[in-house]
Each structure stands twice: as C-alpha cells, then as structure tokens.
Amino acid sequence: MNNLAHDHNNRRMELVLAAASLFRDLGYERTTVRDLGNAVGLQSGSLFYHFRSKEEILVAVMALGITRTTEQLEAALSCADNPRDKLAALFRVHLNSLLGENQAALEVMLYEWRSVSAAARPGLVVLRDRYEALWQTVLDEAAAAGLVGSDTRLLRRTLLGSLHWTVQWFHPEGEMDVDRLADRMLALLLREEPSSTC
Amino acid sequence: MNNLAHDHNNRRMELVLAAASLFRDLGYERTTVRDLGNAVGLQSGSLFYHFRSKEEILVAVMALGITRTTEQLEAALSCADNPRDKLAALFRVHLNSLLGENQAALEVMLYEWRSVSAAARPGLVVLRDRYEALWQTVLDEAAAAGLVGSDTRLLRRTLLGSLHWTVQWFHPEGEMDVDRLADRMLALLLREEPSSTC
DNA sequence: GTCTATATCAAGATAGAC
DNA sequence: GTCTATCTTGATATAGAC
Predict the structure, then answer these.
(1) PANTHER family attached here (chains A, B) (predicted)?
(2) Considering its fold, how many domains does chain A have in total?
(3) pTM summary value
C-alpha cells in the first residue's frame, strides 16, 4: 500500500487536511506542532502517535496534493476527445486544485520543497513527474494539431509557472471565478478573445 | 534617505549580500543568525549592532533585490526604442536578475513574503508595484502595436509567473544560458521560432 | 565595532499514566 | 489513542567588557 498518498485512517487524513491549511497560511516552518494539535483538538504530543515527525506530515500533505490533482486531471482528460478540450482541462483542473475551496495541499507541494529532507524528495519527485508527464502528452498533441508552438518542453514549464503563480494574486472572492480565470489564461495562450462561458 | 534600498555602509551591504545567498539556499526560517555571522566572519551577537533584528535583514535583502532589478530595467528600457525591443528587455533583465551570478536577492523577494511582518510589507509592496508598473507600460505599448493581445493585466501576471518559476528548474550550468532562455521565452509569447543569437 | 557570555523563550519530540 | 509533563535543543536577542 502506498503510504505516501493513500490513507484509510480517518484521524490521519483529518490531520493532513488541517496541516495543509496551516502550512499554506503560515508556512511549514512557522507552523508548530502545537498549532497542528489545536487544529484537530489534540495535544501536541498526541500527534506523534500518528506521525513519526513533523516532516512526515509535510510529506503526506504534499503527496496528497499532487496525487489528488493527478487523479482529477486523468478523469478530466478521459472525458475530452480533442486537443483543444484537453488543453482546457489542464488549465481548469490545475487552477481548481490550486485555488478552489480547501485545496491547500497542492500549494504546499509547490512552495515548501525546501523543507523536505533529501531522503523524502525522491518519492515526491516521482509523483510530480507523473503529473507533468500528463501535461507533456497533452501539449505535444496540441503542438501536432497546430494549436501551440513546437517548443513544448519550455512551454510546459512556462505554463505551469504562470498557473502556480496565481496563488500570489488571485482571490476567489473577487469578480472572477476560477473557471473564468482558466478560460482567460487559455485564451492568452491561444490568442483568442476569451469566450463568454462554456 | 531611503533606508530600505540604499545603504552606503559597506559592512551592512556585505551582510545583506551574504544573507541573500543564505536565505535563497536554506530559506529565511532555516537560516540562523549564527549562519549569517559565519558568512561574514562575525559572531552572531555582532550582527545586532548593524540590524535591529533578523527580519530587518530580510527586508533589506528584498528591497535590494527589487530596487536593483528596477534600476536595471529602467536602464535597459531607455536604450530600447521600439515595443519589440522593450519586450525583450523585460525578459532579459528579469531573468538575469533572478538567475545570474550572485543574484539571490530577487529570488528571496519573490519567495519569502510569508516571513515579512505586516508592518514591513507596505514598504516592499511600493517597490514591487513600481517594478510591475514598468512592465505594465511596456505591455500596453506592445498591445497597441499588435505584438500581444489586449488582456495586458492578466498577461503581465502570467508572464511574471512564468519567469519567477524558472528558478525552480533552470540551471545556469546547463546547455542554455540565461539570455538564450530569455529569447526562447519571448519567442513563445510572440509565436516566433527563436532567433539564433541577437 | 566586535567580542564573550548568557538571558529568554519556544521548538520538536519522548515517557509513562490512563 | 490521548493525556500530562517534561526533556533537550537551538533559536533570537541582549549586556557589558574590550
């Protein structure tokens, strides 16, 4: 059983979700085990029955963020049957995972790498590479269809950077919702005027 | 005199530069005042003759990163006389400031916001906004010239996100140098095949 | 301006009762 | 499985000599 991603223990999952929010809001280093305990109604010492260390919680948060997003992207791609719709799925799934309600885990995955020990990194890199491989496939198909240029590896990194950065400025309570943002960013890529709502 | 950005004290500047590298490599929270002292050959206590707190060092690093980059962009733009060259200057200056030799300060500015106290943020926001205003002006001119689409505010955020993210994957020792990267990223935007070297 | 020495505090983690 | 209590460490910052 894949301990990184799947976890059928309710208490553990509850803790991981609470940790995701705290790590996102305060940063991993500034979040204390006492904060984590408070968030789920436990004393700080009790956390260590469920996790060996604070870092193990971080790794669990990150793994959850990236595997969930990957699963959602796979599901969305299987419903799309042309390159244009697949491109749209990339943007929508990624932004909803990053900016949607209670979706802190992916953001932690993106911005807390420095706190992950060398020992824990390879497992997370595998998960991240799997996600990015989906992106690469879709972009290559789009390039073959003439929708985007042929420099798809750089394009992948460029687009993912653009999307990742949205957490720094986008506020869901604003005038624009997440799906609308996805449409507008896709329109920038394709040089279309953004469509009304599809 | 603007204490945030300009500093005519040599010792202070030496410290800020060393701190920039450490904060980038280890992260602000994981860098200790002992690390900072070691880097410049001082005992940790001696730092507090030059700075009131560790956070004051962080703010100085960030202010240096963004003001230097702004100055370099202003200089580059004043040498460019058409929208296309001004666009190219945006990319080149930003990437060289972010990825060039001993250019850690801007990266710290981008990735350590969470460690800046509410009291210190407004001063930095002013500096950042000044930089982004330069970007906005250039993009608006480019849109007027038909080089890019008209959604320039979103485009600005999208492009800056792409550039900021390069620190996560670009390695200057690789086959591609920073100016070449800038050209290729500009080519993506303009949908050109990247030119050889200009 | 830099040193030595240390005050002060909070962090992650553990032990053993329940 | 969770609690209370605490161990141990390492952090920022200060005081006062030089």
Answers:
(1) HTH-TYPE TRANSCRIPTIONAL REGULATOR RUTR, NUCLEOID OCCLUSION FACTOR SLMA
(2) 1
(3) 0.94
Calculate what percentage of chain A has a pLDDT beyond 70.
93
Give the protein-side footprint of strand C (Cβ within 7 Å).
A 31-34, 44-45, 48, 52-55; B 11, 37, 41-46, 49-50
pLDDT score for A196: 55
The residue range of the domain holding A118 is 55-189
Q: Is residue B124 part of a domain?
A: yes
Residue A39 domain flag: no
Burial class of residue A6 (count of CB atoms within 10 Å of its CB; 0-12, 13-18, 19+)? exposed
How many angstroms separate the CA of residue B114 from the nearest CA in chain A?
7
Question: With 0-12 CB in 10 A as exposed, 13-18 as middle and 19+ as buried, what is B43?
Answer: exposed
Cβ-contact A54, A137 below 8 angstroms: no
For the segment A77-120, what is each residue's pLDDT rounded down to a tens digit?
999 999 999 999 999 999 999 999 889 999 999 999 999 999 99
Distance separating alpha carbons of residues B86 and B76, to the nearest angstrom: 8
Is A6 inside a domain boundary? no
- In chain B, which residues touch A (CB < 8 A)? 26-27, 29-30, 111, 113-115, 149, 151, 154-155, 157-166, 168-169, 184-185, 187-188, 191, 194
What is the domain-level CATH number for residue A161? Answer: 1.10.357.10
